[in-house]
Amino acid sequence: MAYSLYSAIPKKPLNSIFISSPNFIFSTVNKHIPCVTPSIFPCLGGYCTWVSAVSSSVAETEEHLNRHASPGIVAKEYADLNLPERFSEDVGNLRIRQHVNPLRRGLMIPAEAPNWKEVFEDATLPLMVDIGSGSGRFLMWLAKRNSSSMNYLGLEIRPKLVTRAEYWINDLGLKNAHFISTNAMVSFQRLVSTYPGPLMLVSILCPDPHFKKKHHKRRVLQKPLVDSIVNNLAHGGQVFIQSDVLDVALDMRNYFDAVPDKLVHIDSVDPSLPCDGDGWVLNNPMGIRTEREIHAEYEGCKIYRRVYKKVQH
Question: Where is coiled-coil annotated (predicted)?
Fold first, then answer.
């Protein structure tokens, strides 16, 4: 029987950002998910302009990104986490490079798998892995709501973000969340293959687009990583991908569509899931949006989503 991947996610308080939505995959889920900006609105404004010009931009900061969205919009979405802005008297607020070359020699060394029994209170629980977890707020929000039913692992290439995320989960007292600073392209297989429980969900949400064609090899999703995800995913497990950049979304979709004997798109097993005419899932199924997703939708950008399920033929 398929694992209830999105079960136990409680209803988020209704506000101007959220609309009521039918259950995503499992009938036991009762939640609200965000409204997608209608496609008739053009993709204008700061964030989308930044996206289109990112290949020629210099290092950006989280502070810079926040100026492109309405004041406090991310803070409001994640308000119930009550995270401190200054996480360390020594480090204070972080200025983070948004773009990292994952092929740099120092980032091609696989991370050692931790002692999972020390990392998680119950290392046999189903596991979600978020590749490119960024600040970690998205994963922490899920972990807080599923503290006894699922473990959450964030893989992030920028170590300062991981340092802050680990500080935050300790502050929240979360025993089912962990972050590792690593290059997922080279570490995913080693990490998940040693995990005692089943891998039930892998998410790759709004990864760095690396627009220039010569930089496409830097994109996180390459065939070896796809093979590793598919081979380690438990039966009934799912893959959730999304991007506000169509070219990146198509690139990811093509990789996962290429293994139809192992993965099927969720609309083929759940016809009630709303998709547009091109097969993109209309709403974020997780009950909370990522920070980049919040910025993009605020600026009127469309989010391209796909959800795959592992099947046995």
Answer: none
Q: Is 291 exposed, middle or buried (0-12, 13-18, 19+ CB in 10 A)?
A: buried
What is the DSSP annotation of 190-257?
A: HHHTT-SS-EEEEEEES-----SGGGGGGSS--HHHHHHHHHHEEEEEEEEEEESSHHHHHHHHHHHH
What are the domain boundaries of the chain?
Answer: 18-310
**CATH code of the region 18-310:** 3.40.50.150
pLDDT, the chain, mean: 78
- Say if residues 44 and 300 touch (Cβ distance below 8 Å): yes
> Catalytic: which of 130, 208, 244, 251?
208
pLDDT in tens, 7-39: 444 444 333 333 233 333 333 333 333 443 333
Residue 208 falls in the annotated catalytic set: yes
Pick left, alpha or beta for residue 247 (phi over 0 → left; psi -120 to 50 → alpha; otherwise beta).
alpha
Q: What is the pTM of this model?
A: 0.76
Which of 80-84, 92-96, 189-193, 229-233 comes out lowest in average pLDDT? Answer: 92-96
State in Å, rounded, how far the first CA of the chain is from the last one.
Answer: 15
- For every residue of 10-75, DSSP letters joined together read PPPPP-TTEEE---SS-TT---EEEPPPPTTS---SHHHHHHHTGGG-----HHHHHTTS-TTHHH
Q: Per-residue pLDDT for 78 more than 50?
A: yes
Distances (CA, A) of 205 to 129, 234, 244: 11, 20, 9
